[in-house]
Every structure is written in structure tokens, then in C-alpha cells.
Predict the structure.
Amino acid sequence: MKNDDSIKVGISIGDLNGIGCEVILKTFEDNRMLELCTPVIFGSTKVINYQRKMLDMNLAYNGIDSAVKVVPGKFNVVNVWKETPNIEPGKETEEGGKYAFLSLKAAVTALKNGEIDVLVTAPINKHNIQSEEFKFPGHTDYLAQELEGEALMFMVTNDLKVGLLTDHVPVKEVSNKITPKLVEGKINKIYNSLVQDFRVRKPKIAVLGINPHTGDNGVIGKEDDEVLRPVINKINDSGKLVYGPYAADSFFGSGLHHQFDAILASYHDQGLIPFKTLSFGKGVNYTAGLSKVRTSPDHGTAFEIAGKGEANHKSFEEAVFTAISIYRNREEYNELTKNPLEKATGKL
């Protein structure tokens, strides 16, 4: 297992006109962060210089042309491009999307090649990043393709974890996309993530209903009775502690969420509105279900405050902490679950 200070945290800088660079710089302005990990920012020293001057920061950095040249314990900036982008804080521009993707692409390549250990992504603008190479509703689907997994959008804090059955899809398409196979797969991903990534020995998972009042016995809709309940019963029969479906309107307000290790919501706003209400600024978006660890803050580009020095970096800082913690937990889990013969001999 690696020591904390050797964990390389790769960081994509997001939209150059948003608050991505600001929250990155504010996070690592605290020198204690460099004792915890080695940050590797994928962008350019010219961009970092511009942002430092704009924010009146003196954070020292180490400019390199490849992630393989990272210096441990330093704030490393990989020069992904040599030209000087036009930065217009607060504006949605084509350039902003172009360089956000170049940063993300380089960071993901480094992650796949083992040049960094985890990835933390600063916010992108989902509209201007669209291109021939990026035709996705967000980071999650792109990462699922690149890392060849079935991703789960998992919003997490220390005491609240909310997963989504469907994430960035129109509300009118939600019920059609929720199938028994999807429900079973997402529940199992949450269960496995809780065990491997968060060290929960016997997870308890709650599933929120699709329809108001979980369909009221078919009066408001049949999906809860015909899709959710049979899958929940099947998984329960296998010995896993999965309960529901629960009526979503009263679940969080009644405090029921405190009784579970994670909650599976049916669609984006059903899960994220209560999550962000209860934990905004402290939450982390974790992409579970992949072979590599990726986290991000729970906010967007915040164009309205970009360039003003007003951005709160705490969620980004938490995203860094969470990525490191999950990485260590996975390594420990893999070590503990190795074949005993393999441990003893080094091979089977």
C-alpha cells in the first residue's frame, strides 16, 4: 500500500471561465495539502499564472510536460497545451469548452496509464464542451466509456450517500429507462462500493419510489409494484439488506435517511435536491462502479461569481480527501481479500 504523500491526485481544471482554477488554487494554497498528496494539474502554466495574478495568490508550482515527470510533494502543472487561451471569467465560450476537454482527456489518459492514482475533476459546462470527441451529458458517461465500466453517480458525505438510478436524462424518459436489470445493477454497485470504498461491513440500502406515494397501489402508477418491489425482494432473499420503495416526499424530512448507509433515488432531482439541501458545500460527486477513482465537487462552474475570488473551495477540498480515502480503502480491501495462496507465494 502507498503512503499518503505518494498518492498522485490528478486534477482536470474544468471550464477556464468558471471557478475551477480558483477552487483548485485555494485548496492547495494550504501547504498541509502537499503533505497529504501530490497534486497533478492538467492544463498549462500560463493558465495557472493568469489565475494566480487574478486572485492575488503566490502559490508556487512545478511546470512539467508530462505526468511521468511529477515531483512528489509539489504542486505540479502538466502543460497539456502551449498556446495561451482567451479567458473570459463568467462567460460561456467555445474556447472554455475546448480546453476543458483537452484537460479532461489528458488527465483520463494519465489515469488509465497509471501515471496518477486518482482523478478529481473541476466543473465543466455541459453545453460548450460538446464536440466530436465529447458527446455526453457529463463527466460520468464519458468516464464510463473511457474506463470501460458501468458508472454510478454517487453523491457522498461522511454521513449521507445518495446514488441515482437515472442521472442526466429528461424526466419524461425516467420511467422507461428504469428496468429490473438496471435496478439490480445499481443496487449491487452501491452495495459493493459501500463495502470496498467506504468500509461498511453490512450495508443497509433504501430505495426511493418512482411515483408519488410509490404509486398508491397502482392508482398513480404501476412501476413501483411491477419493477422496484420484485427486484428489492429478490436482492433481500440473497441476504443483502435492501428496503423500499419509500415515498420520496417524506423520506428525508422524517429523518429516515439516518437509518441507512445509502439511498438509491430514481432520478436526478429526487436524489440531489435533498442531498444538496442537507450538505451543500460539503458534498462530493463520486463515480462508483469503475476500475479507477474519480470524484468532483457538488457544484457547477458558477459563472456568476467566476473571477471575483468569492468561490468556496470546501467541496473541492472534500473531493480530494474523498478520492484519497477511497483509494486507500480499495487497496486495503484488495489486500484483505487476496487469495491466501497468492499472498503466501506471490502467485497461484
